[in-house]
């Protein structure tokens, strides 16, 4: 993967849990990456596996701290944003988010109820 487009997109792929693949390794469903009319590679989107972990990691990057170190207001904001992203449709997400935030499941449910009100 020496092409400059592929190198430039690698950080984006890493952030969203995707993969950059060479043109010979592309599969149906990969997004073709074109440079001057030539397919130089593909962007393979991440599946649902690990999606919640990727969302939690992104929240840590955006808030600039470990989630369990955030103040109450910031934790509420994290829960609100995760809810907007659809994180809580993932099985056992409330438990994992509670663990990451260092709070109880009950607290996460309270944050969710407060954001809906």
Describe the structure.
The chain has five helices and three strands; from the N terminus they run H-E-E-E-H-H-H-H. The mean pLDDT is 91. The relative contact order is 0.11. It starts with a helix and ends with a helix. Strand 2 and strand 3 form a beta hairpin. With 117 residues, it is α+β, with helices and mostly antiparallel strands. The longest helix is centred in the first third of the chain and has 13 residues, at 4-16. The protein has a three-stranded antiparallel sheet with strand order 1-3-2. It folds into two domains: 4-44, no CATH class; 51-116.
Quick recap:
By secondary structure, the protein is an alpha+beta fold. It has 5 helices and 3 strands. The chain has a 3-stranded antiparallel sheet with strand order 1-3-2.
Write the topology of this structure.
Blueprint: H1 4-16, E1 19-21, E2 31-35, E3 38-44, H2 51-63, H3 72-84, H4 93-101, H5 105-116
Helix pairs in contact: 3-5, 4-5
List keywords for this structure.
2 domains; alpha+beta; single chain; 3-stranded antiparallel beta sheet; 117 residues
Judged by helices, strands and strand pairing, the structural class is: alpha+beta
Side by side, the strands of the main sheet go: 1-3-2
The number of domains? 2
Query: Averaging pLDDT over every residue, what do you get?
Result: 91
Strand content: 5-15%
- What sequence of helices (H) and strands (E) makes up the elements? HEEEHHHH
Q: What is the CA–CA distance across the termini?
A: 49 Å
> Helical region count?
5
**What integer value in Å does the Rg equal?**
18 Å
Number of strands: 3
User: Can you give the helix content as a percent range?
Assistant: 40-55%
Molecular shape: elongated
- As residue ranges, the low-confidence spans are none
């Amino acid at each position: 993967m020496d092409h400059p487009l592929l190198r430039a997109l690698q950080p984006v792929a890493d952030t969203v849990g995707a993969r950059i693949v060479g043109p010979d390794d592309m599969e149906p469903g990969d997004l073709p990456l074109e440079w001057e009319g030539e397919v130089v590679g593909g962007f393979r989107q991440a599946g649902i596996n690990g999606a919640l972990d990727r969302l939690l990691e992104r929240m840590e990057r955006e808030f600039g701290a470990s989630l369990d170190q955030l103040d109450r207001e910031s934790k509420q904001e994290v829960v609100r944003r995760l809810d907007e992203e659809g994180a809580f449709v993932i099985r056992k997400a409330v438990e994992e988010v509670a663990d990451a935030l260092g709070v109880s499941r009950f607290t996460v449910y309270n944050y969710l109820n407060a954001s809906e009100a």
